[in-house]
Amino acid sequence: MSVAKKEKVSLQFYKDEFKSSLVNYSLLDAQKRFTALPADALEKCEEERDRHPVVILYDEQPAGFFVLHGWDGVKAYSENQNAMLLRAYSINLPYQGKGIASESISLLKQFAKENFPLVNEIILAVNHSNIMAQNVYKKGGFVDQGKGLWEEKEKCLFTICN
Questions:
Q1: Residue 126 predicted with pLDDT over 80
Q2: Which range marks the domain in which residue 26 is found?
Q3: CA atoms in the 13 A half-sphere facing the CB of 110
């Protein structure tokens, strides 16, 4: 399993050794409205083999988390069966404001290409009122595809191609 790395930030598939850091994970209440906590997302990953948990490391310490979800996640947003859905993305509160989000997003294409060679697109749906996240994704190369109604919520759809 490949690790994408940039300076102090790297991406690595989840391992049990990261569990204690991810269970003791904190977000602001305003942020919890928009994403799942890693412990909750990991439960779903155990239930669905199509979900791949990824840990964002900062100086080799777990600082963030997201899930790359295959076709079962993608099909609500796209017909591209070679796409993956980025979901449950977050940076643990003590690590916020250090540029980790931007660096981790910039590593995402390389990480996906190395670990999922058939994937040609990464999709994510962001709540339309989550402007901070939209800006991070745009800075990382994601393109805003417009707004839509998914899961009974208005969201902005973003894509990046490999």
A1: yes
A2: 4-161
A3: 14
Residue linked to tokens 């998914």: 150
Q: What is the separation, in whole angstroms, between the first and last Cα of the chain? A: 18
- Please check the confidence at residue 59 and state whether its pLDDT lies above 80: yes
Give residue 71's pLDDT. 95
Phi, psi (deg, nearest 5) at residue 145: -100, 5
CATH of the domain at 104: 3.40.630.30
Domain count, the chain: 1
Tokens found for residue 61: 């310490």
Question: pLDDT-derived band of residue 16, with 50, 70 and 90 as boundaries?
Answer: very high
The tokens 């690595």 sit on which residue? 12
Rounded Cα distance, 45 and 151, in Å: 19
Q: Report the chain's C-alpha Rg in angstroms.
A: 14
Gap between the Cα atoms of 115 and 15, Å rounded: 16
